[in-house]
UniProtKB/TrEMBL annotation:
<protein>
    <recommendedName>
        <fullName>RING-type E3 ubiquitin transferase</fullName>
        <ecNumber>2.3.2.27</ecNumber>
    </recommendedName>
</protein>
<dbReference type="Pfam" id="PF25598">
    <property type="entry name" value="ARM_PUB"/>
</dbReference>
<dbReference type="Pfam" id="PF04564">
    <property type="entry name" value="U-box"/>
</dbReference>
<dbReference type="InterPro" id="IPR013083">
    <property type="entry name" value="Znf_RING/FYVE/PHD"/>
</dbReference>
<keyword id="KW-0677">Repeat</keyword>
<dbReference type="InterPro" id="IPR016024">
    <property type="entry name" value="ARM-type_fold"/>
</dbReference>
<feature type="repeat" description="ARM">
    <location>
        <begin position="422"/>
        <end position="464"/>
    </location>
</feature>
<dbReference type="InterPro" id="IPR000225">
    <property type="entry name" value="Armadillo"/>
</dbReference>
<keyword id="KW-0833">Ubl conjugation pathway</keyword>
<dbReference type="InterPro" id="IPR036537">
    <property type="entry name" value="Adaptor_Cbl_N_dom_sf"/>
</dbReference>
<dbReference type="InterPro" id="IPR045210">
    <property type="entry name" value="RING-Ubox_PUB"/>
</dbReference>
<comment type="pathway">
    <text>Protein modification; protein ubiquitination.</text>
</comment>
<dbReference type="Pfam" id="PF25368">
    <property type="entry name" value="PUB10_N"/>
</dbReference>
<dbReference type="InterPro" id="IPR011989">
    <property type="entry name" value="ARM-like"/>
</dbReference>
<keyword id="KW-0808">Transferase</keyword>
<dbReference type="InterPro" id="IPR057623">
    <property type="entry name" value="PUB12-19-like_N"/>
</dbReference>
<feature type="repeat" description="ARM">
    <location>
        <begin position="547"/>
        <end position="590"/>
    </location>
</feature>
């Protein structure tokens, strides 16, 4: 949103509240006026893409007034109070003019200013009228009894009145070309490149990066207009059409990606993968609400516990999604992975987590419904890019893959256009490229495309898994490998693909390698990918057999990245729920360092996983584990503090653990060691 505001934090064509300066002495006002007039005159040499003549004429007239004002100053006499009224009116007008000139020359808003060029012309006219009116009331006789400069002022007044400040005929013509292009979009007519070039040339938009600036600006304008409730909304259609135009132009007209943005590495903070999940995946298929306590039933489908219980309560013992008759409807397995994703998603998107606030209908989604022209333009753009990927030169393909990469980031609608245009199989082929930049673009594009369900299918159906695994293992750059891991994470959100990915014997070892040697981002992506794979119970042994446990235990001890620690704890907690997982963890990790993680982990989610892990270890590991934990001098303290500030789930787990530890001590002192482990166990055995 910030980009839409210019340097001074103001939206284009709006004026901040400028207050009339009632109490300021006329001589002070005069100084202010002179300095403002100088500011305005500096614009004389600027390039005005639109309203050029009007702007230049206004600057010229202000220049004439400036001469007059300086003469008044030179007389160095006390100005009559009645001059103050005129001066403060002038001041208002000058300030607005300066803002207007700033808008006319600002980069990024050129297309917008073209569309509004008649409004701008009108503003110039209104402001110059205001100036001549203000000058009219100037008590000239009092300022200059000798009448020397009066004629000067009268000249200005006359000129300001006379000039019409009309819409510049060139602006008008170019605007018409622009509108005809987007009308063409609506009717599916591929625009002629020359018309587009004419518009861009006229506005001085001469490079890819300038085009990109226009897009960014439009994007934020669209955001602002969408948020506003007023009649601004009817500008939306025009803005969307402009967006379609400029996007098409950027992709089709410029061959070279220039500017700092082009090769900039992506450096979004921590949990970008999670932040971009489709929130619909978190809704219970029955209640359509974000799930509070997701549980998986026999068929592998996940529902919110309360909804599925209600469903069973009505006497139906079939899976609502598949209709399969259930042999054991009581079997509800908590889906920890899903819970974690929901919590992270909620906390990162500022949505109150379902645990704290129950109603979550307003999940941030794509509010935007673009207009027809923009949609059609997007379809043409994607068709065009798809053709280039098929038939372009190496260089063209490279550029197209970059365009696709940045388009794939923007919205699900754009992703669906790309998928429909058939870019997925072509991008997969590009993964074989030895050019690191092309390969990276292609896999980055696939990563974000794979948020769209259609492209998940397209990837898998075109043997994409193999290509992606190949990049995961041998990608030219670390970034490419990291994106490959991220892509697998998204693919793993589909149960069927989770199985498929797990079946590929190369995937998990390759992910492990990244956890071992990758950058933090690569580690992160690999961790969440493994976590995603664990959603399928059949992958449990595979993950375990890969030797992930010592790696994670090591990471816990050595990393200072909170997000990596939390992810590791989450995986370990999930693994520990089965006996063989517990055994592996006990073999490689020492309990004291896990207890330490409970203290040092700063996130509540991390603590929750840590206590889940400890509890699962006790439940599955039996009294040997309990005996060690009882001796730890700090654990009890941590557990009690969790009772006051943990998540509700952490509180439950912490109290269960406390109970186990207490019981153990009591039994030990009373000599009986039987049955240390209480009911908790039953819910963990799948
Ligand atoms: C690529 O070129 C061939 C032959 O010139 C053509 O038949 C094919 O349709 C083109 N493919 C695309 C996607 O434009
Ligand atoms: C994917 O899209 C998100 C925004 O939707 C962006 O922040 C991220 O950088 C993109 N990833 C890649 C690898 O381009
Ligand atoms: C992609 O789509 C959204 C709306 O669906 C739009 O706001 C965005 O600007 C589009 N295009 C590009 C090139 O970013
Ligand atoms: C527990 O954490 C706090 C702050 O995070 C730290 O000051 C303290 O030393 C830790 N305790 C132990 C025993 O490590």
């Amino acid at each position: 949103m910030i980009q839409s505001l210019n340097g001074s934090g103001r939206r284009i064509l709006t004026y901040p509240d400028v207050h009339p300066c009632d109490d300021i002495a006329p001589n002070t006002l005069l100084e202010l006026l002179i300095s403002l007039a100088y500011d305005i005159c500096y614009y004389k040499t600027e390039f005005f893409p639109t309203n050029n003549r009007n702007a230049k004429e206004v600057i010229r007239q202000i220049g004439v007034i400036l001469v007059f004002l300086e003469e008044v100053r030179e007389r160095d006499s006390d100005l009559p109070d009645s001059a103050g009224l005129c001066f403060s009116e002038l001041l208002l007008a000058f300030q607005k003019i300066r803002y207007l000139l700033e808008d006319c020359t600002s980069e990024g808003s050129r297309l917008c200013m073209l569309m509004k060029s008649d409004r701008v012309a009108n503003q110039f006219r209104v402001l110059m009228r205001a100036i001549s009116t203000a000058l009219d009331v100037l008590p000239l006789g009092l300022i200059d009894p000798m009448d020397e400069i009066n004629s000067h002022v009268e000249l200005v007044i006359r000129q300001a009145r006379k000039k019409k400040f009309e819409l510049d005929p060139n602006d008008k013509r170019v605007k018409e070309t622009l509108v005809s292009v987007w009308n063409g979009f609506e009717n599916g007519i591929i625009p002629d490149k020359d018309s587009i070039k004419r518009v861009l040339d006229y506005l001085g938009i001469r490079s890819w990066s300038m085009c990109n600036k226009e897009m960014k600006f439009l994007d934020s304008e669209i955001g602002l207009v969408t948020m506003s409730s007023s009649d601004e909304k009817n500008e939306l259609g025009g803005l969307c059409s402009l967006m379609g135009f400029v996007c098409y132009a950027r992709c089709v007209v410029f061959d070279i990606v220039d500017g700092e943005t082009s090769r900039q590495s992506e450096n979004n903070p921590g949990n970008w993968v999670l932040a971009n999940l489709n929130p619909d995946d978190f809704r219970c298929p029955i209640s359509l609400e974000i799930m509070v306590d997701p549980v998986t039933i026999e068929t592998g489908h996940t529902y919110d516990r309360s909804s599925i219980l209600k469903w069973f309560g009505t006497g139906k013992s079939i899976c609502p999604k598949t209709g399969t008759k259930l042999t054991n409807p009581e079997l509800l397995v908590p889906n920890l992975v899903m819970r974690k994703l929901i919590q992270q998603y909620c906390s990162e998107n500022g949505i109150p987590s379902p645990e704290t606030g129950r109603r979550n209908r307003h999940v941030k989604g794509e509010i935007l419904v673009g207009c027809l022209a923009a949609e059609k333009a997007m379809k043409m753009v994607t068709q065009f890019l798809s053709c280039i990927l098929a038939n372009g030169t190496k260089k063209e393909k490279n550029k197209a893959s970059y365009e696709i990469r940045i388009l794939a980031k923007t919205s699900n609608f754009n992703r669906s256009c790309l998928v429909e245009a058939g870019v997925v199989p072509k991008l997969l082929k590009l993964l074989l490229s030895t050019d690191s930049w092309t390969q990276e673009n292609a896999i980055a594009a696939l990563l974000n495309l794979s948020k769209h369900s259609g492209s998940k299918t397209a990837i898998v159906e075109n043997w994409g898994l193999e290509y992606i695994v190949d990049v995961l293992k041998h990608g030219v750059k670390m970034e490419a490998r990291q994106h490959a891991a991220g892509t697998l994470f998204y693919l793993a959100s589909v149960e069927e693909y989770r199985i498929l990915i797990g079946d590929n014997p190369e995937v998990i070892p390759a992910l492990l390698e990244l956890i071992k040697d990758g950058t933090n981002r690569a580690k992160k992506n690999s961790l969440v990918a493994i976590f995603g794979l664990l959603m399928h119970h059949g992958n449990h042994w595979r993950v375990l057999a890969s030797g992930v446990v010592p790696l994670l235990v090591n990471l816990l001890a050595s990393s200072d990245r909170e997000d990596l620690i939390t992810d590791s704890l989450a995986i370990l907690a999930t693994l520990a729920e089965k006996i063989d997982g517990t055994v592996a963890i006990l073999q490689h990790g020492d309990l004291d360092s896990i207890v330490k993680a409970l203290n040092s982990s700063t996130s509540r989610v991390g603590k929750e996983y840590c206590v889940s892990l400890l509890l699962a270890l006790c439940t599955n590991g039996g009294k040997d584990v309990v005996a060690v934990l009882v001796k730890n001098p700090t654990l009890m303290g941590y557990l009690y503090s969790l009772l006051t500030d943990g998540t509700s789930r952490a509180i439950k787990k912490a109290s269960a653990l406390i109970r186990i530890l207490h019981e153990y001590c009591e039994k030990r002192s009373s000599g009986s060691m039987a049955h240390v482990l209480p009911q908790e166990r039953s819910i963990h055995v799948w």
